[in-house]
Amino acid sequence: MCVEIWDSSKKRLYYTIAIMIIQYIIPLLILCFSNFYIGFLVWIRKPPGENHPTRIKEMDLEKRRTVKVLICVAVSYALSWLPLHVITVVGSNNQQLMSQEYLQVYWMFSHWFAFTNCAVHPINYFVMDRDFRKKTKKLFRSPCCLYLKTTSQFQVRQVDSSC
Fold this sequence. Notes:
Blueprint lengths: L8 H36 L8 H41 L1 H4 L2 H15 L1 H12 L1 H12 L4 H5 L13
Helix pairs in contact: 1-2, 2-4, 2-5, 5-6
């Protein structure tokens, strides 16, 4: 196992906490604040000239879904990266704990779990957003590139190379 050697356990702990703040806390705060701001703007948005009750009800449902997706994105980030940072802080505070066999498995699992965060977002969107789901299904049903399908017939011309 690869272990960092520090002249002081306090320095190791401070370094680990600084890394956690830079790699986890600050991005999480930025994600939460930006998602809160976007959700707030979506929630207070009023449709221009729309007074039909069914359309207003549909827009309220869309607003709720959008806010749920934003919350889900922030929560999935927080939950997927938290175990890795917890084990890193605990391990830097107690090096003997890191030599335990079960903890190495937990360490490997927490890395895998943190990196799956990127794969979770499209799944969240697929589950929670009807339009995203429709377009994704349509994309996977078509075997060819969508660009070629939507443009006019693709023609290949042979260029005369005998100048």
